[in-house]
């Protein structure tokens, strides 16, 4: 069995204009002082990483890796959640998602898509240069507006949507394969890959491409009322990345899974800091360890009540207390003995 690595922290939600949250050095020292051993690095902020340069220069990657190592940290994965989302955007979402586009590409949706595709390809090469074997991203979505359709979807719509999504991703997946890096799609609402069935649809549409894998985050399954423990049983061989994020689902007579257009605090399903929600992390860590999932336990802070600073402080001990040191030794090994065929026959009476 493999021991889960950690604790690590995803830096995206902690970036700020104020120190120590406005630079890589500041965030590394902050995370290290809290007791983290790894950082998951978003790639949209040049204060953390120049992704294009990382794809071009081994020297730059060595220096970046050396800087994090100097703080006693490892880079666990690069993240292209934003760019991955922009690989596939339904026209209904174009205006809202344009907020993530570079200034020179706003209102240029085709140019934005091309930029996003190149960014994710760059992340494959940069990951290899940094010695990483897994990458965190989103799939994007062409079908989400049809998730609960009225009128019913025309026949063939879903199949065509996943075929197009796969066509957009296949050239990217090939680059990841060439660089020996797994693409870990965060299974997430608003993405076309948002549960088990949709993951299987996408995997099939790509011809079972070997680079297609999963970033497992149980909080998203709580909001969907999906069995997040059995999910591990079904897909453990694909789980190559892991977000430690909690959630709770408290339906009322007025609202349920869709949330009634309320803000996060007033929804039935809402994200919480690890340990404050309903996720059974003890069983999750046991399952992932039992199946030998070689992953980092990465804290992702998203909470409607608790501050990010407190969530980060508490996350270190929370993850440390859940990591299981995997064993290859049976508890009753002491009672074992050498195989003796004659003795076995006597035991069986033959």
Can you characterise this structure?
The protein has one domain: TIM Barrel. It is about 40% helix and about 15% strand. The chain contains 13 helices and 10 strands. It has an 8-stranded parallel β-barrel, surrounded by 6 helices. A two-stranded antiparallel ribbon has the order 8-9. The longest helix has 23 residues. The protein is globular, with a radius of gyration of 22 Å. The two termini are about 35 Å apart. The mean pLDDT is about 95.
Number of strands: 10
Listing every helix as H and every strand as E from the N terminus to the C terminus, the arrangement reads: EHEHHEHHHEHEHEHHEEEHEHH
As for the number of domains, it is 1
Give the helix proportion (percent range). Answer: 40-55%
Strand content: 5-15%
Q: Going across the biggest sheet, name each strand in turn.
A: 1-2-3-4-5-6-7-10
CATH third-tier fold name: TIM Barrel
**Known CATH architecture:** Alpha-Beta Barrel
- Number of H- or I-type helical stretches: 13
Which segments are poorly predicted (pLDDT under 50) over 5 or more consecutive residues?
A: none
Q: In whole angstroms, how far apart are the ends? A: 37 Å
Q: Tell me about the biggest sheet?
A: 8 strands, parallel, barrel
Spatial extent as radius of gyration: 22 Å
User: How confident overall, as mean pLDDT?
Assistant: 96
CATH homology superfamily: Divalent-metal-dependent TIM barrel enzymes
> From the helix content, strand content and strand pairing, which structural class follows?
alpha/beta
Quaternary structure state of the chains depicted = single chain
CATH C-level class: Alpha Beta
């Amino acid at each position: 069995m493999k021991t889960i690595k950690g604790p690590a922290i995803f830096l995206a939600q902690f970036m700020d204009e104020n120190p120590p949250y406005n630079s890589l050095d500041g965030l590394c020292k902050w995370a290290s002082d809290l007791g983290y051993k790894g950082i998951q690095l978003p790639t949209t902020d040049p204060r953390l990483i120049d992704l294009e340069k990382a794809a071009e220069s081994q020297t730059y990657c060595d220096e970046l890796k050396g800087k994090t190592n100097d703080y006693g940290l490892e880079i666990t994965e690069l993240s292209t959640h934003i760019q991955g989302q922009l690989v596939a955007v339904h026209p209904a979402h174009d205006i809202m998602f344009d907020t993530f586009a570079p200034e020179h590409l706003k209102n240029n949706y085709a140019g934005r898509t091309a930029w996003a595709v190149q960014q994710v390809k760059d992340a494959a090469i940069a990951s290899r240069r940094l010695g990483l074997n897994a990458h965190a991203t989103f799939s994007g979505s062409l079908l989400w507006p049809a998730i609960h359709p009225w009128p019913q979807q025309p026949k063939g719509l879903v199949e065509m949507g996943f075929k197009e999504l796969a066509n957009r991703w296949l050239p990217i997946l090939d680059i990841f394969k060439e660089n020996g890096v797994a693409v870990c799609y965060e299974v997430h609402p608003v993405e076309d890959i948002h549960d088990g069935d949709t993951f299987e649809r996408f995997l099939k549409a790509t011809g079972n491409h070997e680079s297609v894998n999963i970033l497992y985050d149980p909080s998203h399954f709580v909001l969907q009322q999906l069995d997040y423990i059995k999910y591990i049983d079904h897909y453990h061989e694909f789980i190559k990345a892991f977000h430690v994020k909690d959630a709770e689902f408290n339906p009322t007579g007025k609202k349920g899974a869709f949330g009634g257009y309320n803000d996060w605090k007033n929804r039935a399903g809402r994200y919480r800091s690890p340990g404050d929600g309903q996720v059974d992390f003890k069983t999750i860590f046991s399952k992932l360890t039992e199946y030998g999932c070689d992953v980092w336990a990465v804290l992702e802070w998203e909470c409607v009540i608790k501050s990010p600073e407190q969530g980060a402080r508490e996350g270190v001990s929370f993850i440390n207390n859940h990591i299981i040191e995997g064993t290859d030794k049976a508890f009753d090994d002491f009672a074992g003995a050498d195989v003796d065929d004659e003795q076995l026959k006597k035991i069986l009476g033959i």
